[in-house]
Fold this protein.
Amino acid sequence: MSLHKDQELKEAVLNLPTKEKDKLLVRLINKDKMLLKQLHYELLEDESDLEDRIIDLKSNLESLFETNANKIKNIPVYSNYKGLSSTLRQASGMVNEHEKITKDKFSVVEARLLILEEAFDLYPSLFGPSALSPAFKLHKYVNGRIKNAIKLFDNLHEDLQFDLREQMEFVLNFAADHKLDYDL
């Protein structure tokens, strides 16, 4: 049940003494880790902390690809498609968390393009034609990520787009060369 639907409960909570409301608030925040991270960012961090978060995110993404480089080869076989799909989803989850916490549009687009660039640089053979089901799923997922990156890129101010233009062109050229169909 939502607090918005139960007006009586909402009124009762709002009428609680401040000390009790504070205790309740702290207990509720502790139950939601994402809310805790968002509040920490909004209330306790500044611009330099955002820069540190961005550096950490990029470092974690690069580390993820380096770690999985031993497990995933640039050979179009079943296990490599599955492994790359898993890695891309994990990387995307890291960016999603960063986005929910910071709401920084530029770094989100930059990170999403970085993920695509890494995948395309390290595993170009996995984006060629294939009849394997995991290849189809990987290509479908990557097409969705490209489409999402384009949409986010287009919503940035043109000065910010300029800073990311080379990365975007690389991704779009690779997609065109490998006939990835990301339908806009």
Summary: Residues 39 and 45 are 9 Å apart (CA to CA).
